[in-house]
């Protein structure tokens, strides 16, 4: 649902990078990304180094 709202405002991305958290590696999300033609790249979960851009945005 949140992805659809973002896509409506910003357009559909070619790829998305997330960590390997349970919410981001589910079959449902993988299927959703495939339907939209989005490549999904994952990093190390809870790793500030692997997710430096996201962590910087969150100021953690």
UniProtKB/TrEMBL annotation:
Record's signal peptide:
none
Q: Which GO terms describe its biological process?
A: DNA integration
Instruction: Tell me which UniProt keywords the record has, alphabetically.
Output: Endonuclease, Hydrolase, Nuclease, Nucleotidyltransferase, RNA-directed DNA polymerase, Transferase
In terms of SUPFAM superfamilies, this protein maps to: Ribonuclease H-like
**Pfam families associated with the record:** rve
Please list the GO terms describing molecular function. Answer: endonuclease activity; hydrolase activity; RNA stem-loop binding; RNA-directed DNA polymerase activity
**Integrase catalytic domain: residues covered:** 1-60
Q: Keyword Nuclease: yes or no? A: yes
Q: Which PANTHER family match?
A: ENDOGENOUS RETROVIRUS GROUP K MEMBER POL PROTEIN, RNA-DIRECTED DNA POLYMERASE-RELATED
Name by which UniProt lists this protein: POK19 protein
Q: Which organism is it from?
A: Brachypodius melanocephalos
């Amino acid at each position: 649902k949140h992805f659809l709202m973002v896509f409506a405002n910003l357009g559909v991305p070619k790829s998305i990078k997330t960590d390997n958290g349970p919410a981001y590696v589910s079959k449902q999300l993988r299927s959703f990304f495939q339907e939209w033609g989005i490549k999904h790249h994952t990093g190390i979960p809870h790793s500030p180094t692997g997710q430096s851009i996201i962590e910087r945005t969150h100021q953690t």
